[in-house]
Amino acid sequence: MTATKLKWGVLGCAGIAKRAVIPGVQASKWNEVTAIASRDADKASRTAEEHGIGQAYSSYEELLADPSIDVVYIPLPNHLHREWTIRAAEAGKHILCEKPLALTAKEAEEMVEACAKAGVELSEAFMYRWNPRYDKLREIIASGEIGELRGIRSAFTFNNAKDSANVRYRKDWGGGSIYDVGCYPINAARLLLGKEPEAATVQAIFSQEHDDVDMMASGLLEFEGGVSLTFDCGMWAAFRNPLEILGTEGIIEVPSAYVTPQPGSGDFYVNAGGERRLVEVEHVNAYTAQADALYRAVKGEEPLRYDAFDAVRNMKVIDACLQSARERARVTIN
């Protein structure tokens, strides 16, 4: 252990925290998880023991009061992101908050303002962006190898509909497929195109069995120049997460765009000039890379590549998608 490591505390024992984020942070040279909190004291103790975490707290407030904690990770249900981000900021903690950052763009703005006022870093946990593949994708697009961009297609679906008690199926908690997985194609299109969409049109299946959340959605985001993202997302369909980037002279195919757990799963294909070539991508633990980026920002070595205002802009698009799906209408994005 080195004295320079940032000490992390985790609010809650969510599956994503136990399965991916905690191990990712623990694998970092510059970060370590030293505390975890749950309103269920036994759950906190069990999780701490399973992951080699030294301190378990029976309340979130206790963890925030711990002066040794530098960074707080928030994997709580979506409706709790705003409250606990603001409370963590007021406690002087830097924050990694799960995606989507908030329930609305207005909430996200309030979170960003609170963190700015407190002088702490705020990062949204879109770990996929830290896979080096996305730098390669942007390089290929910029090189002109596939010509002028004409559109992006992407999807993220899985089937968990039988788990009726899941927090994803609580409307007032920010449940639904657009919040949970649709946010990925939306975020990726904005990242790859380097601009914001002008309008959204979305059709969705709202299920009364699942508290009227959107269980499946298909959408169109309009960008300037006639370029668009067509996407679908769902929690009641077979698993897939592809991405296709269409140009005038070629196509980039990414079989697994957002989930890359194994070496080789981050590779993709470029179809151009009459040839199809495999682009191999170095396997990186994106959760570790995400934590290391926050470390560098906290230490003043370099600013976050994706600042907190990017999360606000992403939420504006999500707001428009949800409004369009409910109203069955095209929604302009300001």
TrEMBL record:
Location of the GFO/IDH/MocA-like oxidoreductase domain: 134-253
UniProt keyword Flavoprotein, yes or no: no
Gene3D superfamilies xref list: Dihydrodipicolinate Reductase, domain 2 (3.30.360.10), NAD(P)-binding Rossmann-like Domain (3.40.50.720)
Protein origin, superkingdom: Bacteria
One Pfam short name: GFO_IDH_MocA
GO molecular function: nucleotide binding; oxidoreductase activity
Record keywords: Oxidoreductase
Domain Gfo/Idh/MocA-like oxidoreductase N-terminal: from-to ranges: 7-124
PANTHER family tied to this protein: OXIDOREDUCTASES (PTHR22604), TRANS-1,2-DIHYDROBENZENE-1,2-DIOL DEHYDROGENASE (PTHR22604:SF105)
Family: Belongs to the Gfo/Idh/MocA family.
Protein name in the entry: Oxidoreductase
Organism: Paenibacillus agaridevorans
